[in-house]
Amino acid sequence: MPEKRSELPAELKECLKAGYNQEWRKELRQAVPVKDRMKVARQKMPEREPGVRNKDFNEVNRGLSDEAARAEARRCLDCANPQCVSGCPVAIDIPSFIKLIEKGDFTASIRKLKETNSLPAICGRVCPQETQCEEVCTLRKATGISVAIGNLERFAADCERREGEVYIPPPPADTGHRVAVIGAGPAGLTVAGDLAKMGHRVTIFEALHTSGGVLVYGIPEFRLPKAILAAEVDYLKKLGVEIRTSFVVGKTATLDDLRGLGFEVFFIGSGAGLPSFMKISGENLVNVYSANEYLTRNNLMRAFDFPRYDTPIFRAKRAAIIGGGNVAMDSVRTAKRLGADTAQIIYRRSRQEMPAREEEIKHAEEEGIEFHFLTTPIRYLGDERGRVKAMECLRMELGEPDASGRRRPVPVPGSETVTEVDLVVVAIGQSPNPLIPQTTPGLKVGKWGNIEADFKTMATSMEGVYAGGDIIRGGATVILAMGDGRVAAMEMDRYLKQKR
Question: Is the pLDDT of residue 1 over 70?
Fold first, then answer.
């Protein structure tokens, strides 16, 4: 599955070249030579103290100051052939928005960002820039330390919100075409924003009572404050996007029903909400949660904000989270904030193989999270009330690499141990939501239940129906879902123009 662009479109290359040759950009390059830019230290993201932040749900990272942001922007070499753009799934003009920060024109910077990204405050917080745009940064190749692209993206977005003057581009001419988007997650929000800016009438149908998808139910407040998500969604509404919540496509109405109401083209971004379990003894015990349920109770239903929100959630003393990805990190750090004396990660591989972002692992370590590597549970033990009280684990060792490229964990015979726990959260992945494929005859799906789509166009097996995000990829990242949305929007626009 494609994650980065190997080749940029010719029109984008021309646009980047034109921006690079602007007079003010030339002046910036002349004012600070490359050798001096390479000597500027990467600006540290200010963070709250670990011993304080692990007791509440306020945001961990504080954001860069104006001075620090301009200093960080000065590190950008303003390459003539910027590889960072090809490393970005939504092809943001990264050098231009960074140079505008260096210049001190923060308003122009956020406008440049929003040309290709309708959710910059979100991407600046939760996207894995270190394995995408920052990984191919020219400065990183030269010095080993990339420009902090994600931190600068967050800075520009936060500046706009702080100033209270959110720019809304002039509305385009109305094409009269009606588009239905299923799911208000990152893929759906992206495709909706892009199509609205093209003049199409876009309606998002969201099953939950609020917008955001995994952004609202999966990512905790300390990583992505919901007020910021709400502001990004409000921006899309101002672009003309209609959002209908509590509307379950497949139950409230099918795709054929929506077609009968006048919708001409569809995007399915219904996500991967079906949790996975290990199928071991004791998984049906009380207080053995899927990560989906645990995080949804805490994030979407705001169980952490008791008594303002009277949502029940078990406040453990000895919490064990199974898995090593970002969802596992979110779950274990949540358990710690809800009062757990011990909150531990149980991961069957070593730290080196953990798929979670390095920043999330670092934050978890600082906050007192325990890590048990090369360990896997083989059964859970319950008390007389049917509540989990312990787990039996087996030690592992790494064998040959598997299909993922990581070394396969192999059990060590006779290494069983029993540990007391009163909460288990299983965070080992999730599967695509099956409802829409089950209610849409003719929509081709893969063996894992994912909708099959052409990654070059996001087109499915049905004419006029496109899909992207976790419904086609399984559990993936926010920015990959957004990249799918951008590709789909361009293809859907092309499809509608051909109908005229």
Answer: no
Residue 229 and residue 212: Cα distance in Å, rounded? 7
**8 Å CB contact between 181 and 205:** yes
Q: Which strand (E) or helix (H) includes residue 45?
A: none
Tell me if residue 6 falls in helix, strand or coil.
coil
Distance between CA atoms of 239 and 189, rounded to whole angstroms? 12
Pairing of strands 430-431, 274-275: antiparallel
Separation of alpha carbons 221 and 58, rounded Å: 7
CA-derived radius of gyration, the chain: 23
- CA-CA distance, 493 to 500, in Å (whole number)? 11
Output the pLDDT for position 58: 97
Residue 138, SS3?
helix
143 in the Ramachandran plot: left (φ > 0), alpha (ψ -120 to 50) or beta?
alpha
* 117-141 average pLDDT score: 95
Instruction: Write out the two tokens for 247.
Output: 């509307």
Sign of CA dihedral 6, 8, 10, 14: negative
Q: List the structure tokens of 101.
A: 């920060």
SS3 202: strand
The neighbour count for residue 281, using CB atoms within 10 Å, is 14
Q: In the chain, what are the domains? A: 10-163 (1.10.1060.10), 178-273+432-499 (3.50.50.60), 276-430 (3.50.50.60)
Is residue 287 within 8 A of residue 316, CB to CB? The reply is: yes
CA dihedral for 72, 78, 83, 89, sign (positive or negative): positive
Instruction: Provide the token pair at 355.
Output: 């798929």
At 186, the amino acid letter reads P
Residue 481 has pLDDT above 70, yes or no: yes
Q: In Å, what is the CA distance from 122 to each residue of 16, 156, 212, 372?
A: 24, 12, 11, 31
Looking at residues 105-123, what average pLDDT do you find? 95
**Residue 183 pLDDT > 80:** yes
Q: How far apart are CA 434 and CA 368, in angstroms?
A: 38
Q: How far apart are the first and last CA of the chain?
A: 33
Write the pLDDT tens digit of every residue in 208-256.
Answer: 999 999 999 999 999 999 999 999 999 999 999 999 999 999 999 999 9
Q: Are 423 and 340 in contact (CB under 8 A)?
A: yes
Provide the whole-model pTM. Answer: 0.94
**Could you tell me the CA-to-CA distances from 144 to 39, 359, 362 in Å, in that order?**
12, 17, 19
H or E element, residue 480:
helix 478-499
Angle at 237 between CA 11 and CA 454, to 5 degrees: 45
Mean pLDDT over each residue of the chain, to the nearest integer: 95
